[in-house]
């Protein structure tokens, strides 16, 4: 079976995904959605994303892209020097989630089969951005809106996009 690559991210309407290596929002229901969608699956991410204070790690398998792997790794964690090595390490996996950061998303976007992309309905300050992509290349398969409440300062939409097949 062909390996499926899924990008999973939350971005503000102005494409911000991070500020000072952290998420610029706290959205517990979006994190619950993330955990449900990614349970038992392998993750690929960059070193800074892996080391972020609010990083979410796979309880199954993490592949971290870095030019400087640590001498002693963490449990369920492997290191790769680039995207192709990361994909080779995960060649036996059918479903692989790409968690960022910005440069990893940029490199993986052309390869992704699906995007689980939460849109945070706000313009926020940040220093990391999700890459610009052409919506014409994707079908919106589902969208679930979540309004503001006591636990969520921003409203957001959890969207699933599936890459359109070439004609």
Automatic annotation (TrEMBL):
<dbReference type="Pfam" id="PF00186">
    <property type="entry name" value="DHFR_1"/>
</dbReference>
<keyword id="KW-0560">Oxidoreductase</keyword>
<feature type="domain" description="DHFR">
    <location>
        <begin position="4"/>
        <end position="163"/>
    </location>
</feature>
<dbReference type="InterPro" id="IPR024072">
    <property type="entry name" value="DHFR-like_dom_sf"/>
</dbReference>
<keyword id="KW-0521">NADP</keyword>
<comment type="function">
    <text>Key enzyme in folate metabolism. Catalyzes an essential reaction for de novo glycine and purine synthesis, and for DNA precursor synthesis.</text>
</comment>
<keyword id="KW-0554">One-carbon metabolism</keyword>
<dbReference type="InterPro" id="IPR001796">
    <property type="entry name" value="DHFR_dom"/>
</dbReference>
<comment type="similarity">
    <text>Belongs to the dihydrofolate reductase family.</text>
</comment>
<comment type="pathway">
    <text>Cofactor biosynthesis; tetrahydrofolate biosynthesis; 5,6,7,8-tetrahydrofolate from 7,8-dihydrofolate: step 1/1.</text>
</comment>
<dbReference type="InterPro" id="IPR012259">
    <property type="entry name" value="DHFR"/>
</dbReference>
<dbReference type="InterPro" id="IPR017925">
    <property type="entry name" value="DHFR_CS"/>
</dbReference>
<dbReference type="GO" id="GO:0004146">
    <property type="term" value="F:dihydrofolate reductase activity"/>
</dbReference>
<protein>
    <recommendedName>
        <fullName>Dihydrofolate reductase</fullName>
        <ecNumber>1.5.1.3</ecNumber>
    </recommendedName>
</protein>
